[in-house]
Amino acid sequence: MPNGGGGGGFTADPDAVKTAAAKLGIAADQLDDAGKELLAAMNALGQCWGNDDAGKEFAKDYEPGAQGSSEGFANIVEALRGMQHNVERSMTAFTNAEEEIKTTLDKKV
């Protein structure tokens, strides 16, 4: 977050950032559960549209769409977990860099 001092600096509250990152993981878990529930419900219905011409026509669009929605859920879950990991890793690097600078400056004083 910009420090507002006009110097182009940056500051962050490590605990707040880590808390926010954890929420990405929670959202990923919830979305993963919802996707699994949706897939189970769709599978439970089976091919309820039948095997006549109208059913076959319906299946042409429905089946790829159903598969795509399942893959979409999985991709979003993976992206959220990746974002969580990257935010946590970035905050750790930021905190370590701050500590190194502080240690270096303390030695020079």
Provide a descriptive summary of the structure in words:
The protein is mainly α. It has one domain. 81% of the residues lie in helices and 0% in strands. It has two helices and no strands. It has helices at 14-45, 53-108. The longest helix is centred in the C-terminal third of the chain and has 56 residues, at 53-108. InterPro entries: ESAT-6-like_sf (IPR036689), T7SS_ESAT-6-like (IPR010310).
Write a brief caption for the model.
This protein has 109 residues and is mainly alpha-helical. The chain has 2 helices and no strands.
Counting helices, strands and paired strands, the structural category is: mainly alpha
Helix content: over 70%
How does the overall form come out from the CA principal axes?
Answer: rod-shaped
Our count of helices gives: 2
Query: What is the rounded distance between the termini?
Result: 28 Å
Helix/strand order: HH
**Poorly predicted spans:** none
Arithmetic mean pLDDT: 90
State Rg. Answer: 24 Å
